[in-house]
Amino acid sequence: MPPSTLRIAWRNLGRNRKRTALALLAIAVGQFALLATCGLMHGYTDNIRLAVTGPLIGHAQVHAPLWRKERALDLVIDDVDSVLAAVRADADVWSAAARIYAPALVAPREEAFTSVVVGVDLEVESAEYGLLSGLDEKLKGGEVFLGYRLARKIGAEPGDEIAVVGQSADGFLANDLYKVRSIIKSPADLVNQSGIVMSAEDARRLLTMENQAHEIVIRARISGVAESIVERLSRHPSLAGLEVLSWKSIVPEIHIVLKTTDYVGYFVLVIVIVAAVAGIANTLMMATFERLHEFGMLLALGCRPSRIVRMILIEALFLAAMGVVAGTALGFLFVIAVSGSGVDFASWGSEALEDIAFKGLKLPIHIFPRIEPQDIVLGLIAVLVTSLVAAAWPAWIAARLQPVEAMRA
Description:
Blueprint (H helix, E strand, L loop, with lengths): L2 H10 L4 H40 L3 E4 L3 H4 L9 H9 L4 E15 L5 E8 L1 H4 L17 E5 H7 L6 E7 L5 E12 L4 H6 E5 H8 L7 E6 L5 H9 L8 E4 H4 L1 H10 L2 H27 L1 H9 L4 H34 L4 E2 L6 H4 L2 E2 L2 E2 L3 E2 L5 H27 L3 H6 L1
Parallel strand pairs: 3-7, 4-6
Antiparallel strand pairs: 1-8, 1-9, 2-3, 2-5, 2-8, 4-7, 5-6, 10-13, 11-12
Helix pairs in contact: 1-14, 2-12, 2-14, 2-16, 12-14, 12-16, 14-16
């Protein structure tokens, strides 16, 4: 391609700077909208995936058959220490913790309220992604943590003594007195709403459970290996007769939501394409009609129609490239500007918005956007292809010009 064709195409963009600027603005805003939306969606899916595979559910779980459906106190994992040892021996398992759940009544004074006793391994659950992650306080025997919403409902304060009454695993009455060590705000909504968190030893003593648990929560070293962990553990002799499930099987609705968010970017991409078509087609069509006389002279001097077509298409590519670069820069500036504090949608609403939950799982809406390379490439390819399509009609008109008629225009 002659260098002069590139120079002429570039020079022609400056003939009507206002019109060119409007076309660039339309493309840049579209690309920015694409990157900002994709960035927010990536941050949102990161939050949801972390919430799901974090404190409450983990990457995989082990239960007695039917326990997830019935939540019966007697549907337990027997010899839980041996099962835990087998799970922790898997090379891809980062941590595993046994939990005990039991419905109970809690009475700080005379009136009783419904609650759930949650017996946990305090050391494991105090680590990152545990039910008690970020909590420095330790529990002694006979002490419990209360979820902050439950504490508010029953009017309990740290240092209060509460009575916990329920049914033990052998069918008899279970009751004891406990001291409230602290009021906690857990990453798990189940704990916040109704949780009485105590050590697994205290829970087994209260519920008459000997080396038993209702659930083992498994966290993988890498999130993508959850399915392979489930496959291996399902065949392990120590877990024979137990149910081993990945998080995708436990909360399939969340898995579907995460897959659906991948398509949000394509909706915004349609807006980008519309902006590119509207801006470039209008700019090049007007420029073509304004330069009919010029094209006629070029054709009369021996310029081939194909060169004029290339000139118009190159103008379209210049417009598209500059618009994408500007929009990408704006997108990165947006991500950099909010990378430290994130976008806290909870601050835009009430406390109820802050505590959105699904199946006892707290869904965080404090989003830290991030842009992936394919987001930029997707917008760039879409705009370039769209620009060539939008420029096809003006180029076709210019290629069919008759020199004499064009010079009279």
